Amino acid sequence: MVFHAREDSPTYEDGILEMDEFFHDSIDKLLARTGVSPQDIHVLVVNVACITTIPSLASRIIKRYKMREDVKIYNLTGMGCSASLISINIVESIFKCQENVNALVVASESLSPNWYTGNDKSMILTNCLFRAGGVAILLTNKKSLKDRAMFKLKCLVRTHHGARDEAYTSCIQMEDEHGRVGINLSKNLPKAATRAFIENLRLISLKILPLREILRYALLSFVGKFVMINFKTGVDHFCLHTGGKAVIDSIGKSLGLSEYDLEPARMTLHRFGNTSASSIWYVLGYMEAKKRFKRGEKVFMISLGAGFKCNSCLWEVVRDLDGENGNCWNECDIDKYPPTSFSNPFMDKYGWLNHKDETTFDRNDFE
Q1: Would you please indicate which residues are annotated as catalytic (active-site) residues?
Q2: Is residue 302 within 8 Å of residue 312, measured between CB atoms?
Q3: Cα end-to-end span (Å), the chain
Q4: Does residue 173 contact residue 286 with C-beta atoms inside 8 Å?
Q5: What are the two backbone dihedrals, phi and then psi, of residue 43, each rounded to the nearest 5 degrees?
Q6: Which of 57, 98, 203, 346 is the most buried (most CB within 10 A)?
Q7: What is the block-wise mean pLDDT of the chain (367 residues), using blocks of 10 residues?
Q8: Rounded to an integer, what distance in angstroms lies between the CA atom of residue 106 and that of residue 158?
Q9: Taking the CA of residue 169 as centre, how many other CA atoms within 13 Å lie in the half-sphere pointing to its CB?
């Protein structure tokens, strides 16, 4: 749509085709890899923030794969980058009430109808940061499939600060002064994200860290000593939200993480950009492709999103993962990551754009 210079007038069909292309490719691969029939899916959760269709996107998936008539569907929109853990939480709640259930979670984002065509710097950033992508995940509480599982969910915590004005408006879809729709990222975003992040950590740390570390932190804080809580006492790997370089740096500093810990998030942002709710699964895929996961290790996921929300969870690796399943990183020659240089090869050719005035970009000059 952008390459065809139609960003000013995207069609409904542009958004639908983008979603169908991802759905068909990812779900086909997932079902083929697991050997699970579409008729064996009892719950379907789909989250795509920026497009709504009638019938729903979930209904389109049901139609294509001829799923069972009693499949329970949840079609989420407007949840932003933290939506995939919300979807996991929905499935977790269902699993507590029902046995022998298979659930399919699908997360993506529709960029075609939501490309910002204006010049407001607080809104144009999304064009630079976000890219197309997605994830399809199969979850189950069937004991017969236990040995085939890769991860086991240990706990999940959701934090929502939407009742606070500055949090609610920190990341919001709106029109600019010329009536062009886009996502506005306000100056309050770092502050809103930090507050939600700290509140979420306060709650989940009690669930994932050993008692000795909690007591150590509480005791030293009580006597007035500044000390950073050591999350590595209960966590082996960190899947961080790829909201941008500053976001990764900030979370890494807050948690006291090394460059080795931050590498998966940095490489995901470098190679795939921010794919919204699916980003943390690209980070997970990087670690799997790098053969980092060993049985019994813990993986901490953190996602941030509009609202403002911070959601996190802890997974346990249930068997050694040597990357035999393959994922999107296998097409990237994973052994070449991280690259030795992050220089932008396009700056020499196009860097002059940064030094021109607005008349340089007058569309009439190119027609």
Answers
A1: 81, 160, 237, 241, 270, 274
A2: yes
A3: 17
A4: no
A5: -135, 135
A6: 57
A7: 83 90 93 94 94 92 96 93 95 96 95 88 86 93 92 96 92 90 87 91 92 87 76 94 89 92 95 92 95 95 93 95 81 86 75 67 54
A8: 19
A9: 6
Which residue from 316, 289, 268 is spatially nearest to 146, judged by alpha carbons?
Answer: 316
8: phi then psi, degrees, rounded to nearest 5: -75, -20
* DSSP-derived secondary structure for 265-329: HHHHHHHH-B-GGGHHHHHHHHHHHTT---TT-EEEEEEEETTTEEEEEEEEE-S---S-S--GG
**Full DSSP string of 104-123:** EEEEE---GGG---S--HHH
Which tokens belong to 324?
Answer: 């035999």
Distance CA 217, CA 99 (A): 39
Neighbouring C-beta atoms of residue 21, cutoff 10 Å: 13
Residue corresponding to tokens 């190679």: 271
Cα-based distances in Å from 353 to 130, 180, 290, 344, 348: 21, 23, 37, 14, 11
